[in-house]
């Protein structure tokens, strides 16, 4: 169930009929005082949960010093966050922006310029079925969901679309095509229904990109920043991309985006090629620096792996074999329960039962809780969610 549009905000979202007012850790409260456990983290954003006792004073301190300067000047916190991302990724340089689509937009521009620098006038980028990269005109064109493109044509060209996890399709789609400059995908498709790319496939694509001098560009906006138990999900396959857009969890809720680049892509942009007023502002940079510092101090990668495995094992124990449950997928704290029918109604039912979650790709229940989640909190989510799914499946046979 969604409520009528507000009279003054554009009607872009089918909102559920509650307003959340504040939170602490995994717990949030609505304006009526009802409490919920947060299995969604603002769609994989609130890495440290809500009102984290280490993050809150750091952000307050930063607001008291400076929120925004601008990129006419050096911003030491940008250097600090860039150095940290370089260290964690094994790449070399970062550019900062404000959201996931902006990070992807920058990546797409990098790929085109990479091509132009090599004399390719009509560069083409390989993208994937069921992918999601954002809602700007370029990132929408890269996205593999026809429904959300309706009404916004003509779509920007220069993309070649292939299915996930199929190296032969990728080779076939690009055979004898000198215009290809990059391959661009999410390690685990989020909006596409929590669909992982297999490690072997990631390695095969890395090799192909090396052989053909293409950029390997991995959108880690949703699956990155520790969510899977590694800093970046592709690290499970022990590869390093050439370009990596980040956003969501990087600022624990403060809007931020970043594109991290390796040696093949780091020097493509020169002054005047790209920029954004707010990108890399001191407040967002402080949020990024502190998020990573706290994640390291509190060993949240290990926590994501451990509690994620516990959550998944509990869901598998309770739901495997239940008629209507097709598959439980994902890694760490990015999990999807794929049902055999549309299940958007579960968002309202979960809300009524005191649980925040989302349904993606129509039929996949998605859990992306804060990385500070404990096993007891994971058990609480399971104890609410399992009966909801069982009842939903028996009521909608
Ligand atoms: C993988 C991926 N890329 C890009 C985006 C777009 O990010 P934003 O909504 O910050 O523009 C999203 C958002 O869900 C995403 O999941």
Descriptive report:
The strands form five sheets. A four-stranded mixed sheet has the order 1-2-3-15. Strands 6-5-7-10 form a four-stranded parallel sheet, sandwiched between helices. The model has no long low-confidence stretch (mean pLDDT 97). Helix content is 35%, strand content 19%. With 397 residues, it is an alpha/beta fold. The longest helix has 21 residues, at 375-395. Helix 5 links the parallel strand 5 (124-128) and strand 6 (159-162). The chain is built from eleven helices and 17 strands. It has helices spanning 41-44, 55-65, 76-89, 100-117, 137-142, 167-174, 199-212, 282-297, 300-319, 345-352, 375-395, and strands at 20-24, 27-30, 35-38, 93-97, 124-128, 159-162, 180-186, 188-189, 195-196, 215-219, 243-246, 257-261, 325-331, 334-339, 355-356, 358-360, 364-367. Pyridoxal-5'-phosphate is lined by residues 99-101, 104, 132-134, 186, 190-191, 219, 221-222, 247.
User: In one word, what is the shape?
Assistant: globular
Quantity of strands, as a count: 17
Bound molecules: pyridoxal-5'-phosphate
Poorly predicted runs of 5 or more residues = none
Largest β sheet strand count, sense and barrel closure: 4 strands, mixed
Helix content: 25-40%
Strand order of the largest sheet: 1-2-3-15
How far apart are the first and last residues' alpha carbons, in Å? 20 Å
Radius of gyration: 21 Å
Give average pLDDT, whole number: 97
Total DSSP helices: 11
Order of helices and strands: EEEHHHEHEHEHEEEHEEEHHEEHEEEH
């Amino acid at each position: 169930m969604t409520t009528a549009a507000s009279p003054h905000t554009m009607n872009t979202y089918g909102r559920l009929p509650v307003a959340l007012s504040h939170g602490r850790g995994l717990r949030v409260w609505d304006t009526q005082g009802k409490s919920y456990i947060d299995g969604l983290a603002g769609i994989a954003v609130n890495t440290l949960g809500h009102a984290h006792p280490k993050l809150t004073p750091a952000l307050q301190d930063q607001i008291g010093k400076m929120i925004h300067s601008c990129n006419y000047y050096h911003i030491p916190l940008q250097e600090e966050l860039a150095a940290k991302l370089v260290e964690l990724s094994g790449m070399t340089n970062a550019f900062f922006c404000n959201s996931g689509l902006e990070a992807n937009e920058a990546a797409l521009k990098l790929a085109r310029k990479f091509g132009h620098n090599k004399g390719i006038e009509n560069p083409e980028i390989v993208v994937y079925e069921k992918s999601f990269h954002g809602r700007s005109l370029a990132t929408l064109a890269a996205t593999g969901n026809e429904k959300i493109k309706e009404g916004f044509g003509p779509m920007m060209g220069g993309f070649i679309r292939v299915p996930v996890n199929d190296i032969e399709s990728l080779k076939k789609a690009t055979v004898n095509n000198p215009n290809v400059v990059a391959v661009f995908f999410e390690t685990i498709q989020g909006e596409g229904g929590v669909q992982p790319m297999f490690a072997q496939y990631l390695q095969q694509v890395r090799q192909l990109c090396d052989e053909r001098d293409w950029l390997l560009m991995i959108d880690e906006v949703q699956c990155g920043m520790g969510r899977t138990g590694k800093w970046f999900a592709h690290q499970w396959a022990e590869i390093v991309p050439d370009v990596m857009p980040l956003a969501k969890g990087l600022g624990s809720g403060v809007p931020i985006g970043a594109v991290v680049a390796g040696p093949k892509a780091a020097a493509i942009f020169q002054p005047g090629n790209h920029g954004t007023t707010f990108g890399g502002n001191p407040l967002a940079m402080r949020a990024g620096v502190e998020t990573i510092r706290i994640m390291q101090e509190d060993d949240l990668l290990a926590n994501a792996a451990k509690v994620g495995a516990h959550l998944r094992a509990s869901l598998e124990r309770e739901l495997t074999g239940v008629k209507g449950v097709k598959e439980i997928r994902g890694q760490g704290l990015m999990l999807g329960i794929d049902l055999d029918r549309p299940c958007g109604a579960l968002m309202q039912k979960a809300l009524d039962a005191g649980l925040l979650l989302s349904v993606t790709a129509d039929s996949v229940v998605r859990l992306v809780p804060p990385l500070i989640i404990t096993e007891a909190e994971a058990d609480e989510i399971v104890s609410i969610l399992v009966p909801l799914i069982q009842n939903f499946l028996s009521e909608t046979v």
